[in-house]
Design a protein that fits this description.
Strand content: 15-25%
Radius of gyration: 22 Å
Shape: globular
Order of helices and strands: HEHHEHEHEHEHEHEEHHHHEEHEEEH
CATH superfamily of the largest domain: Type I PLP-dependent aspartate aminotransferase-like (Major domain)
CATH class of the largest domain: Alpha Beta
Number of domains: 2
Number of helices: 14
Helix content: 40-55%
Number of strands: 13
Length: 386
């Protein structure tokens, strides 16, 4: 029998042990992906409650059986309009969406090019697909993707090729170079599957995501995937694409076909969240201002904090034990910001992932910066005692 106990003990020793922890009531949460603070927005909550009372708690069945309800279709219409696409399809989670899209589109004989920094759901989807694959450390700034695309294009001109990338890389906060990826997709007859989970609701003048950030309203080779559980403040996932692609996914994606539909209350809540974003685009600007104030303040304090276009601020620490120590010191200051460690990030790059959100008033930003100062002082004092 495998010695799981020994392996778990080794993880403890390396600072890689993980456990479920309850978020204390009296702490300031810097880890949440609820960037626009919509999870508790009255309009969003009220819409969810109304749908809960009308349709019940669950999705009842697969969408193809009896789980296709009006809130699903209304939300899909809204997402399609929001993403400037012909159609959209919702899923129980973003993980489901990625699994469904990649495994249904990329078949045996096809080839996938996947950025190594992509979210685990994209990595898993590429592994599960029947297509061949190449995992590349970075798409941007290298010639490797172009070289591999060209080699497969020349050797197998009839092969379907898929470039798979996050829009915003969740642990670094940086944005994929979408214009370059689309140019490559055009040149080598590929489709670009973009997981815009952290870009939707945060990037672009109106929050429409990575494409809008680069001034791209529509591209026939772009398929956008996303989640409703981050800036939208709810639960579920989606894909926005042409009607032909949506029809293909409905007919071929096993994770979609054989899964109970997203519950209608989540659909209605997400619908309301999109309405809030559409009605108040100024909140996107406000989120950016908060992100800049927080990142600049951390840099001025001497932390290796990196300002990106997204609201994700990585504070690079280094070793896993050091990141854990800083996280615990912040918790003593009533700030919740868990350490991010391998294998989620490379060894030697453990960090705190600070997520800016609309709830951070100037006073709360000052509280955060004061807490980081106190935490760093506590760690220096502890080092002297050691």
């Amino acid at each position: 029998m495998p010695s799981y106990s020994d392996e778990l003990a080794q993880r403890r020793q390396q600072g890689l042990w993980r456990q479920l922890r309850q978020l204390p009531d009296d702490v300031l949460d810097l880890a949440s992906n609820d960037y626009l603070h919509l999870a508790r927005h009255p309009q969003v909550v009220e819409a969810g409650v109304r749908a809960l009372q009308r349709y019940g708690a669950g999705g009842r069945a697969s969408r193809l059986v009896s789980g296709n309800l009006p809130p699903h279709q209304a939300l899909e219409k809204t997402i399609a309009h929001f993403k400037h696409s012909e159609a959209a399809l919702v899923f129980p989670s973003g993980y489901h969406a990625n699994l469904s899209v990649v495994t249904s589109l990329a078949a045996s004989g096809d080839f996938i090019f996947c950025d190594k920094r992509n979210h685990a759901s994209l990595i898993d989807a590429c592994r599960l697909a029947s297509a061949g694959r190449a995992v590349i450390r970075y798409f941007d700034g290298t010639d490797k993707l172009r070289h591999l695309l060209k080699s497969t294009f020349v050797a197998h001109p009839g092969q379907r090729r898929f470039i798979v990338s996050d829009g915003v890389f969740s642990m670094d906060g940086d944005v994929a170079n979408l214009p370059v990826l689309l140019e490559l997709a055009e040149e080598f007859d590929a489709l670009l599957l973009l997981d815009d989970a952290h870009g939707t609701g945060t990037l672009g003048p109106t929050g429409r995501g990575t494409a809008e950030h680069f001034g791209i309203t529509h591209h026939e080779r772009l398929i956008q995937i996303g989640t409703l559980s981050k800036a939208i403040g709810g639960q579920g996932g989606f894909v926005a694409a042409s009607q032909k692609m949506i029809d293909w996914i409905i007919n071929n994606a096993r994770p979609f076909i054989y899964t109970t539909a997203l519950n209608p209350a989540s659909c209605a809540a997400a619908q309301a969240a999109f309405e809030v974003i559409n009605a108040h685009p100024a909140i996107i600007v406000q989120l950016r201002e908060i992100t800049e104030q927080l990142a600049q303040g951390l840099c001025e304090l001497g932390f290796d904090a990196r300002l990106q276009a997204s609201p994700i601020i990585p504070v690079i620490v280094g070793k896993a034990h050091e990141a854990l120590a800083l996280s615990e010191a912040l918790l003593n200051q009533r700030i919740w910001c868990p350490a991010i460690r391998p294998p989620t990030v490379p060894r030697g790059k453990s960090r705190l992932r600070v997520a800016a959100n609309l709830s951070l008033t100037p006073d709360l930003i000052a509280k955060v910066l004061s807490a980081f100062t106190a935490a760093a002082a506590d760690l220096r004092l502890a080092d002297k005692h050691d």
